[in-house]
Amino acid sequence: MLWERGDRAGAEIAFRRADEGGHAGGALYLGMLLEDRDEFGAAEAAYRRSDERGHPGGAFNLGVLLAQRGDEAGAEAAYRRADQRGDGAGAFNLGVLLEDRGETPEAEAAYRRADARGHPGGACNLGLILAERGETRAAQAAFRRADNRGDADGAFNLGLVLYERGEHAGAEAAFRRADGRGDADAANRLGVLLGRRGDRAGAESAFRRADERGHAGGAYNLGLLLAERGARSGAEAAFRRAYERGHAGAACNLGVILVREGDPDGAEAAFRRAHERGHSGGTYNLGLLLAARGDQAAAEALLRRATASPDERVAGLAAAALA
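Request: output the structure for the sequence above.
Response:
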């Protein structure tokens, strides 16, 4: 009660008394207070006392601290104890550790236990495993359980499954829920759906949300919309953000804008970045730019490479430039 009303000093005194009296929950909450103020050694000791007294939360929080400092074996043992005591988060984190080292069947079993205990991440990660091996119906059901528990990833992945099955209205609704929970991928996907059905204002708004959350594709798609309506400065800024986040197509589009603005040095840098990221349009445009600047040997090599592009349009343009 003291903690809930903001009296952390009073709460700490009470938790310490409970801990000293052998109370597992008192040790757990004392550890949480200590961790909040970065007293990790004292927090770990409190979690260990809570764990030793059989508290699932004590074992789980101990596991998180041990994982953060690189003690994977200690973290796994702690998560296992939390899992054995019926803790959904312990089962989930155990599943993540097992999946990371390739023990997929054991991870799936852990995710199933977490899911059965109502853990949204357990349901979502179980769905991902099921989807990967082609059990689409079971995966959809798992994603829906995660979504119903308020999980953004669950809603997003449910949207992907529904979209692949042609249920675009359901997919849009799922992407909207995930977007509302702050998922950048979902905002971008929602923008694509809205754009395809002609809702350009809705698409732009969705791409802006994805961009604001640091999504490279959201920034790129926003740039495309802005460029189409002639908002060149806004498009350039959006392409720059996507370019800085590693988007190869954005680097190419930024280069095109910079050529038009009379900045060949900036354009060359952008086209090079696109080329280095395997973007054939960047390779082609870099070749054209170098040819215009008199570096014929380098230009020809780039254009020849672009003729092998899987993009038939780029391959054709490169071949025509070499003719």
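The CA atoms of residues 287 and 302 lie 5 Å apart.
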